[in-house]
Amino acid sequence: MLEEFKPTWMVKSIYSVSPEQLKAHGIRAVFSDLDNTLIAWNNPEGTPELHQWMAELKEAGIPLIVISNNNKKRVAKAVANLKLPFMSRSLKPLSFGITRARKKLGLAKNEVVMVGDQLMTDMLAAHQAGVRSILVKPILQTDKWTTRMNRLIEKYVWRELHRHYPNLKWQEDLND
Question: How does DSSP classify residue 45?
Fold first, then answer.
């Protein structure tokens, strides 16, 4: 059961993962959590680094799709400035949102990766969907109230992951 929370990669920031690295791993689409992964709650415009990374993905022909548990209205408002497609009410840690997006693109499980900042939702959903995952450090150390309970449980899971997988470490990119 513990392995269900183990990310494929742990990268400090998604912005350091290049389209070339993704393609080298056979990844043709990136699915990403929204809050504290792509944008901070207090910066809905996104950072210059995010915009640069999005442009690089687009130029490389790698779609970026937001997979969020939030409702359609909330996600649409949050991604409006970013002009990103999304799947709302994805029910993470279940696989529904990831599977819907993957099938919509007509891609195999090994051709997509799920990016997120939480073990309890994003990494578990990726495992449930049978896709690879990239855990990133949260953009901010503050969370919405709905995430705080997950973070408490996550501390225990982290401790056990490190005990069972002592080689887990944060990387600069996928090739680190």
Answer: T
pLDDT at residue number 45? 84
Only one residue has tokens 């080298």, namely 24
The residue among 6, 21, 37 whose CA lies nearest residue 132 is: 6
The angle at the Cα of 163, spanning 160 to 165, to the nearest 5 degrees, equals 100
State the Cα–Cα distance between residues 137 and 118, nearest whole angstrom: 9
pLDDT at 137: 93
pLDDT score recorded for residue 125: 98
Which DSSP letter does residue 12 get? Answer: S
Round to whole Å and give the CA distance between 89 and 68: 6
- How far is residue 150's CA from residue 143's CA, in Å, rounded to a whole number? 10
Tell me how far apart the alpha carbons of residues 22 and 28 are, in angstroms, rounded to a whole number. Answer: 7
Residues of the chain with pLDDT under 70: 141-149, 151-152
Phi, psi of 5 (to 5 degrees): -100, -10
